[in-house]
Amino acid sequence: MFGRLDEVERRFDEVSNQLADPAVLADTNAYVKLAKQHAELSEIVTTYRLYKSKKESLEEAKELLRGGDPELKELAREELPELQEAIETLDTKLRLLLIPKDPLDEKNIILEIRAGTGGDEAALFAGDLFEMYSRYAGAARWRVEILSASPGPMGGFKEVIALISGDAVYSCLKFEAGTHRVQRVPTTESQGRIHTSACTVAVLPEAEDVDIQIEDKDLQIDTYRSSGAGGQHVNTTDSAVRITHLPTGVVVMSQDERSQHKNKARAMKVLKSRLLDFERTKLAQERATARKSMVGTGDRSERIRTYNFPQNRITDHRINLTVHSLDRTLATGDINDIVTALRSREQAERLQEVSS
Q1: What's the CATH code, domain 2-98?
Q2: For the domain 216-284, what is the CATH code?
């Protein structure tokens, strides 16, 4: 490990010197590339240098213990436990920092929420979830753009698909994929009985052209007249688009825009992200036959979380975490405690893999 850390430190110094070069400062692309690399290496190097400093202090304290001055020996004896604890903490942090990052963590996402069992109540819950994620995105200064939506009869959504773009969106929301269950008394329930409904959430990293190559011959594109709200124009022109990816059978539709061109562009964006997720899932299944990810497989059928209104609690079943702040969470979108716990567990498992 320390050989790698020495290499990282040398590279960090090289990049720091290059950033001070007038030729690099004049080249915007080169500067941006080096600045990003400098930022990525900075935390590792800072932690490593602090680790080495603590190790030196530990050796000095041990040397004092071997000396003859009683006062200095007592000071060293008091300092040893603190130094040893700090070194262990920094060692663990360095091992985590050296774990290769998920290359998709920096990507934007396609968020898909669909009402499942529960009829109108499930659609209302889908709306609640979408509002929760929208507020979470707002607090993180991310942008939310609805790509398509199918409203529920009583409110909420039968289905809503949105693009969330910003800084490292996928790294925060990738654990949200799965089945979310709600337990509450519907407004239409006259006898006060608690009903259970569910929604499925898909979190797909936004695919770029470099990620997914699609051949025109593999696509079947159909146009048809849009349905639902939108005015006379929407219902009298063939502006809606349905794209079928023939090799996989994946079908994507878009009808919310008046322009057939815009609907096609939106549908292609969703299609590319679904195909990227399809390939990643296939690869993960091949690799993960030996073990199951501790935070869940991300399978759409897996129940990951329960929102219980009578008890004002949210329970994440993958990590047995319960928080008693359901009302505040939905009102503010603050799911940071859950996200942080899931990311910590992922890091712990990855650290165990590297150490074993």
Answers
A1: 1.20.58
A2: 3.30.160.20
